[in-house]
Amino acid sequence: MTDRRYLIVNADDFGQSPGVNRGVIEAHEHGIVTSTSLMVRGRAAGEAAAYARGRRNLSIGLHFELAEWAYRDGGWVCLYEVVPPGDPAAVATEAKRQIAAFRELVGRDPTHLDSHQHVHRDEPAYGVLAALARELGVPLRHFGRVRYCGDFYGQTAKGEPYPEGITANALVRVIAGLDAGVTELCCHPGYADDLDSMYRPERAAEVAALCDPRVRAAIAAAGVKLISFADLYGA
């Protein structure tokens, strides 16, 4: 396995809104998305879970949600908190609540774990989700043998538009540069007219790029194997 290149294309924010769901589903059915991460608190989580329940070829993980930040007036500001991100007991309780909600919605355990705006890279969320990943026997984004790639993104670190980052050509370049082993390519497809988020128009552009036939052709030409998180241990 070490000499071959494997690619998991994971769509974040499934369930956040009906428009996001439409984009994720399109990018799975007509594009290269193989996995997705469910926001169980999202207003369209039930719709997303119903879709995923009937499609075992779409891996579905938990997109753990603690808060959301936006870059405004020269700095990052918190738009909302589910629980205080720095409170270990509150974070642990919320993680248990969200995994229970996931199981109720989807009818099975998640195939992988990650978090909204990568909050689990820091404590206490890291310790909580790392323990949960060990308990479930599933990968935790950024940690373990699956290499994370966030290069396919349409904004800078300050939230400024970066449209050249989410074109079909950008995806082809990412594919050409993949290292041996397993890489997770993160994406955020959607139709976001119904979404209050700093990342809105970029989502439709992502759908178009992920569904562009040139991208699948580049994957085949490069000898890269598309897999999902559910395929991971058989890859």
Short description:
The chain is of the alpha/beta class. 34% of the residues lie in helices and 21% in strands. The chain has one domain: TIM Barrel.
Task: Describe the overall structure.
The chain is an alpha/beta fold and 235 residues long. The chain has one domain: Glycoside hydrolase/deacetylase (TIM Barrel, Alpha-Beta Barrel), CATH 3.20.20. The chain contains 7 helices and 9 strands; from the N terminus they run βαβαβββαβαβαβααβ. It has helices spanning 18-29, 45-53, 88-106, 125-136, 168-176, 201-210, 213-222, and strands at 5-14, 35-38, 59-64, 67-72, 75-81, 113-115, 147-149, 181-187, 225-227. It is globular, with a radius of gyration of 17 Å. The termini are close together.
What is the CATH-assigned architecture? Alpha-Beta Barrel
Shape: globular
- Please bin the fraction of helical residues: 25-40%
What is the H-and-E element order?
EHEHEEEHEHEHEHHE
In whole angstroms, how far apart are the ends?
7 Å
Kindly identify the CATH topology: TIM Barrel
Tell me which oligomeric state these chains represent. Answer: single chain
Q: Would you tell me the overall average pLDDT? A: 93
The figure for the number of domains is: 1
Number of helices: 7
- Beta-strand portion reads 15-25%
Q: Using the coordinates above, name the CATH class.
A: Alpha Beta
Name the CATH superfamily classification.
Answer: Glycoside hydrolase/deacetylase
The number of distinct β-strands equals: 9
What would you report as the Rg, rounded to the nearest angstrom?
17 Å
Low-confidence stretches: none
The largest sheet, given as strand count, sense and whether it forms a barrel, is: 7 strands, parallel
Structural class call reads alpha/beta
